[in-house]
Write a structure and sequence with these properties.
The chain is an all-alpha fold. The chain contains 11 helices and no strands.
C-alpha cells in the first residue's frame, strides 16, 4: 500500500493543473480578456503563480519535508477561501471558469484535511516510523499503543499564556490595522448612501470592513496565546500585506490619500505578522520545558 503522503502529493499536483486551467479560462494570456487591463481582472494571472508555488511545495513535500507539509497546510487554508472568492470578486468569469475555481476550492479542502491527518499522525509515531510515514512508497505505519499513551502524557497544551506586554502589542497593532482598513473604506465612500457596493471591481472596496472584522475576531483568541489563532493571524496579516502592497498598482490608483492608506496598511500588517511570529517562536522555545514538567508529573 502506498505511503500516507502519496495521495496528498498527487492531489497537490492535480491542484496545480487546475490553477493553470483557471488562468487560461479567465483570459490571463497575451491578448486575453484579463491580460494587463488595469482592472481587478488582472488578478487572474495570480493563478499561474499559485500553480507554480503549489508545484514547488508539492515536490518538497514529496521529498519528506515536514516544514513544507506545514506550509502546504497553511496554503490550503488560504486557497479554500481564495479560490471561491476569486471566482466572483475579480472580474466577470465564464461558467467553466467559475466551476474550475470552485472545484479547486474543494480539492484544496481535501488537501487541507488530508495533510493535517498526515501531520498529526506523524506526531503520534515513534521517531523511527516518521520516515516511513513521509515516504511515497511503503505501508503507512500505525501508532503503537505505548506510543499513544506516551503521546497523551506529553501532549502539548493548545494554548499558553502570552506575556502581558506581548499580548498588548499584538492587540494594539491588530486594532491599528483594523482602524486603517476601516478608514480606507470610509474615505473611498463605502458608507450607507455612498458608492455602490458589489463583489467585483472597484465596488468591492467594502471588503476592507470584512478584513478588519476577521482580524479582530482572530486577535481576540490570539492575545490569549491560542496557537491556532496565532498562526491564523500570521497568515491573514501576510495576505493583507501582499494585497495592500500590490492593489494600488493593479488598479492604477492615483489618489495620494488612498495610496497613503494602502502603504500604511501594508506596514501595519507587516508589524502584525512580525509580532505574531515572535509570539509563536517564543511559545516554541518554551515547549521543551513544558514537556519536561509534564513528564515529571
Amino acid at each position: 500500500m502506498a505511503g500516507a503522503l502519496r495521495p496528498v502529493v498527487l492531489l497537490m499536483l492535480f491542484a496545480s493543473l487546475l490553477f493553470v486551467l483557471a488562468g487560461v479560462l479567465d483570459g490571463a494570456y497575451p491578448g486575453g480578456a484579463s491580460w494587463f487591463t488595469g482592472t481587478s481582472a488582472d488578478f487572474a494571472a495570480l493563478s499561474y503563480v499559485f500553480g507554480l508555488v503549489n508545484t514547488v511545495v508539492a515536490l518538497l513535500v514529496a521529498r519528506g519535508s515536514e516544514r513544507s507539509l506545514i506550509a502546504r497546510i497553511a496554503l490550503a487554508g488560504f486557497f479554500v477561501i481564495e479560490r471561491p472568492g476569486s471566482a466572483f470578486l475579480f472580474g466577470e468569469k465564464s461558467i467553466p471558469s467559475i466551476g474550475t475555481h470552485l472545484v479547486t476550492g474543494v480539492i484544496e479542502l481535501v488537501i487541507l484535511i488530508s495533510a493535517l491527518r498526515v501531520w498529526r499522525l506523524g506526531h503520534s509515531l515513534a521517531a523511527k516510523d516518521v520516515d516511513m510515514l513521509f515516504a511515497l512508497e511503503g505501508s503507512s505505519p500505525v501508532p503503537r499503543e505505548e506510543d499513544g499513551k506516551r503521546g497523551k502524557r506529553a501532549k502539548r497544551p493548545n494554548s499558553a499564556a502570552l506575556p502581558a506586554g506581548q499580548a498588548w502589542l499584538i492587540g494594539a497593532v491588530t486594532l491599528l490595522m483594523a482602524i486603517v482598513l476601516v478608514a480606507d473604506g470610509l474615505y473611498e465612500g463605502f458608507v450607507p448612501g455612498g458608492r455602490d457596493w458589489s463583489v467585483s471591481g472597484e465596488g468591492a472596496g467594502w471588503l476592507v470592513y470584512l478584513f478588519a472584522s476577521v482580524m479582530l475576531v482572530i486577535a481576540v483568541r490570539a492575545v490569549h496565546g491560542a496557537r491556532l489563532a496565532l498562526r491564523a493571524l500570521l497568515v491573514v496579516a501576510l495576505i493583507l500585506f501582499l494585497e495592500r502592497s500590490f492593489t494600488p498598482f493593479s488598479l492604477r490608483e492615483q489618489d495620494p490619500i488612498v495610496l497613503a492608506l494602502h502603504g500604511l496598511a501594508a506596514l501595519v500588517s507587516l508589524a502584525v505578522a512580525l509580532t505574531t511570529a515572535n509570539a509563536i517562536r517564543a511559545g516554541r522555545s518554551s515547549a521543551p520545558d513544558t514537556l519536561r514538567s509534564l513528564e515529571a508529573a
